[in-house]
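Severity: low
Component: inverse-folding endpoint
Summary: output formatting inconsistent between runs
Steps to reproduce: submit the following structure tokens with default settings.
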């Protein structure tokens, strides 16, 4: 009997770091992240780029701003917590909480085609970058493979996102799409 394929794992918090001597850790919620751990008993801990990890039982968790403090069952001292440093918290994509209308998960945007309102194809979203307190930036690679173009994911520029068609429609200000 073949093993069932593992569901796609999505990072909900990144960069676990040691917090004190009692085995507690902190991590940063993904951009636009809501507390996906509320009410959950376990989470996968691993590398988001590899979409792999081991399931660990949550003893307690608290969010404050964009940070998360977490304690795992069986991780009771700094040495055990340090072994998890640098890893990410992952959840199966199918189990993520629904976001409010007009909000999207980063993993949903990656791979979408970007077009202008006039229908010009700009390229494909390769990744999404944080921009401090401003709107995240879509790193878009033109179909010709040139340098990526950074497009703010502000509602005034990204005017429509169509999940079904896998497209982002942009209305860029003059000069934004010009590559030098």
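Observed output (run 2 of 3):
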């Amino acid at each position: 009997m073949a093993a069932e394929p593992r569901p796609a794992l999505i990072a909900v918090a990144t960069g676990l770091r040691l917090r004190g001597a009692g085995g507690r850790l902190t991590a940063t919620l993904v951009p636009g992240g809501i507390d996906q751990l509320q009410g959950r008993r376990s989470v996968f801990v691993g590398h988001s780029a590899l979409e792999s990890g081991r399931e660990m039982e949550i003893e307690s968790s608290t969010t404050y701003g964009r940070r998360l403090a977490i304690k795992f069952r069986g991780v009771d001292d700094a040495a055990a917590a340090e072994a998890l440093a640098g890893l990410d918290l992952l959840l199966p994509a199918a189990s993520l909480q629904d976001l409010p209308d007009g909000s999207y998960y980063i993993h949903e945007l990656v791979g979408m085609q970007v077009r202008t309102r006039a229908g010009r194809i700009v390229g494909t979203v390769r990744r999404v970058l944080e921009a401090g307190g401003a709107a995240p930036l879509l790193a878009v690679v033109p179909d010709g493979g040139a340098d990526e173009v950074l497009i703010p994911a502000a509602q005034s520029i990204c005017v429509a996102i169509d999940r079904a068609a896998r497209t982002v429609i942009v209305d860029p200000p003059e000069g934004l799409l010009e590559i030098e």
